[in-house]
Structure formats: C-alpha cells, structure tokens
Request: fold
Amino acid sequence: MKANRWQARTKRDLMIEVWEALDCESVGARELKQIQKVIREKFGAAIVDSPASIARTLADEGAVLRHPEVLSLDTEWRERELSALVEPEELNFSGLAEASVSIKKLDTMRRKFEQTSEQQQLGQLREMTLKLKQDALGIARSKTVERQKRLEAREIAQWLIIWLQSPDIFEDWLSLRQQSPEFIQLTS
Reply:
C-alpha cells in the first residue's frame, strides 16, 4: 500500500479506505496495525486512535472483528502509550518537592486522557496512583524508616488521596495546604 494513493481527507474516512483496500473478511491485530501505520504516515502520530476505537469505527461500517486479537492489541497499545508518557523512574515520591513535581506529571496525563476520552488509560493511571498511595502509606507505617520520612510519606499519601478524589481542585488545595501551620512545621 502506497501512502500517496490515499484519497480520504478525514481520519475516519482513511480508516475505512485502508480497511477496504486490505480486502479482508475480518479485522484483527494485523489489519489494525496497518490502519494505524497509514494514519500515522498521513496525519501524524498524535492523531492515531487506539486499536479498539478503530475497530469500533470499522464494526459500524460492517467489519467482522476478531475480538480476542483486537482486545489484546488494544491492551498492549495502551500500555505502551501510558509508559511513553511517563516512565516509572520519572515519578519520584521520595520527598515533598519531588512528589509535587510527580503529581503534576500525573495530572498532565490525566488531562490528556480525559481530553481524548481514553477511559482505559485513565483507569490504568488511577491504579498506578493507588499503588503509589499504598507505597507511601507503607513507608508512613514502617518502624524502620526515620520519623521525618514517615511524616513526609503520610503527607504524600494524603496528597495522592486528595488528587484521586478531586483532581481538578488539587492544585488549589495543595497551595492552601502548604500554607497551613501543620505543613510549615513538617517542613521546618
């Protein structure tokens, strides 16, 4: 398939055009990868939809889906997308300053996923954040960690709890929290 022969002007039309050019009885991983490749070549990587989204569009046009392949490819693609946005080593919750920067990174990802309606990635982000909160609580309860680190870990866990519950107000909440006597005592 040559990239210069595609006539479609919209992403949706291109999906359908490539699918029709593939002339396949059913759609699975191989076909979805090819469609993603053509979309990436024509419109750029930022505009490529998830395999499940492409499959849904094609199903609406009458394509028969090989569901296990679609689901497997979609899961792999979303995991790659999430890890491409933030590597685990980029998130650092070892101290208050580092945690503040890391939560901003989490929030940037959350906003991107909400804008693109990526519910599965939002779920993965939430699961990762819940694990980070549990890790912080574990440090806060540890008898072998020095007192100051335990207090900071408890504070970080509280930050993650607030962010998980109300991410849209978190930044304002954190600003107020950092002005509180309790926080000032913690950091002095």
About this structure: The two ends are 64 Å apart (CA to CA). The chain has two domains: 3-81, 86-187. DSSP finds nine helices and two strands in the chain.
